[in-house]
Amino acid sequence: MQDALFPDDEAVLAEPAPPALPAARPRGAGVQARPVDEEERALAAALPRGLHLGGSSWTYPGWAGLVWDKRYSEQQLSKSGLAAYARLPLLRAVSIDRGFYQPLTASQYERYAVQVPEDFRFTVKAPSLVCDALLREDGRGLRANSGFLDPALALQEFVEPALEGLGGKIGALVFQLSPLSAPLREDMAGVLRRLEQMLQALPSLKAVAPDGVVAVEVRDPEFLTPEFAAILRAAGATYCLGLHPKLPPLAQQLPILRALWPGPLVCRWNLHRLHGPYGYEEALKRYGEFDRIVDADPDTHAGLAKVIRGTTAAGHKAYVTVSNQAEGCAPLSLQTLARAVLDQG
């Protein structure tokens, strides 16, 4: 990797020319993207073709002028904003997070897939019924989730519908494991056994989604051990680099990536560290319309750009999605990150 970040002796793969975007829809035909200037086209064209940058969802009215040609309602953007979003040359990925709260069907995934170009890739979160060790019952607190890391549920409610609906446009299927209870953290060996059993039961994605990878994202630093990395490697899965205050900073997560090298990068930049581990609501209030950078984080841009550059230079894919809660405005964060990647070249 760049500057020997991760040693590698693989040949660098040639980068294919970017495919043409679909023809623009006529004005008046639903949500429209804002115009793209030549500087932006040049920036996107200069990036490694193995890099897929995008936001966490696309349903933000405050992105008017940044992504949309004018202000639209959340309902309009939810229904028909994805096709417009995917017309911006920097936005070659998006994270589908809504399936965490309610499993999506193959037909729902397919409706997303048909709106985007062939080289667009989705990062998709698995449903909470598989990823949450505790589930909330209305008015009755939390209860143990019998479906936590259940292989049959993971396959039936997530992997199979995603493969059927998204097909080759899958970038990463992410199991984001919510914070564990204290008793489970004290039994990490047991949790890791359950994780291993689930991952080993999942099918390879390659026949349907040649670029696709299964990734595991965590919220407890107790996971970040050689044993965890060994389980991922043995199952052909990878670690989702989670940039979130519940975890150590990026540099302290690199040993897990090194243990899994060589391979693709999956990263979700979720929340600025200044808000602390429980600062999501604070960030929502502070960042308002998500139309500007409020809390710039140049150190994270520099560190992440180095990992991206090293990964793609060795011929591997990089799927990186950024939330509005990272700095205040995901589209502007992505522009800054793209320039930082070029600076590493």
Automatic annotation (TrEMBL):
Pfam families linked: DUF72
**Which SUPFAM superfamilies does the entry link to?**
TM1631-like (SSF117396)
Coiled-coil parts of chain = none
Q: Which InterPro entries match?
A: DUF72, UPF0759_sf
Name the PANTHER family on file.
DUF72 DOMAIN-CONTAINING PROTEIN, UNCHARACTERIZED PROTEIN YECE
What is the name listed in the Swiss-Prot or TrEMBL entry for this protein?
DUF72 domain-containing protein
